[in-house]
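User: I'm preparing a small set of examples for a lab meeting where we compare how different chains pack in three dimensions. I only have the primary sequence for this one, and I'd like the structure in token form so I can line it up with the others. Please keep the answer compact; I'll paste it straight into my notes.
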Amino acid sequence: MASAQGKTVIVTGAAGGLGKAIATAFLAAGANVVICDVNSQRIASVEEEWSKSYADKFLAQQTDVSDEAAVQQLIDAAVSKFGRLDVLINNAGIMDDFSPAGACSKEKWDRVMNINLNGPFLTTKAAIAQFEKQEPAGGIIINIGSVASVHGFKSGAAYTVSKAALMALTKNTAGFYGDKGIYSIGLMLGGMQTNITDAFGQGMHMEMFQKIQASQSPFAPEKQVPIELVAKYCLFLSDRDIASCANGSCNLFNKNWPEA
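Assistant: Understood. Below is the structure token output for the 260-residue chain.
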């Protein structure tokens, strides 16, 4: 596995699932890792687990990524403990309930947008301010997108729009900040074990879900993207030489499902 020795990495939504797998990969590669999650119990559990192996190499903080003040506190805490920030991975996100626009409540829309889009915007904004003022300047932002970022009929309206907008934020950020040594990259992920749990827990819009299923080849367990491989990809992209060439790219990582 590639080395991330000495780098400081923030991973949002990282007290479980994909985010924790990404954070663990960076810890194993020698990075200083800061994780946040809105769930205080999961944060406490990760702190207890990692304190046995990684001691002073990590910081875990309860943070609502849709709260600008909380996001700034996260950035400040990371820099206070480790001296700088090198990589931000915007992983925090939730699924919708597959509701189409006509059936999506304003409450559902706002909740998905706040976490999936406003959160990455706020963390990106705060990270860029830090990237610009530190010495040496620069940094890398990796946004965890979805096949729904590029396919308009793979989930409900709210999730689809949030992930498409996240792809646009990735490219816009890359375009303006690339010559400043700040690189922005998107990973458009396919089906994973943790992707859809929120939707099942909330009660899906079954007509929409069934129409989506009928419009594509069936999803099967062997088409799942292993979260450990996503973590490896993030580690690869954290190399500044690689990131400079990948700047602005939004890369499908989906085992060719849905088919290209």
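A couple of notes for your slides: Residues 195-200 have pLDDT under 50 and may be disordered. Residues 212 and 233 are 28 Å apart (CA to CA).

User: Perfect, thanks.
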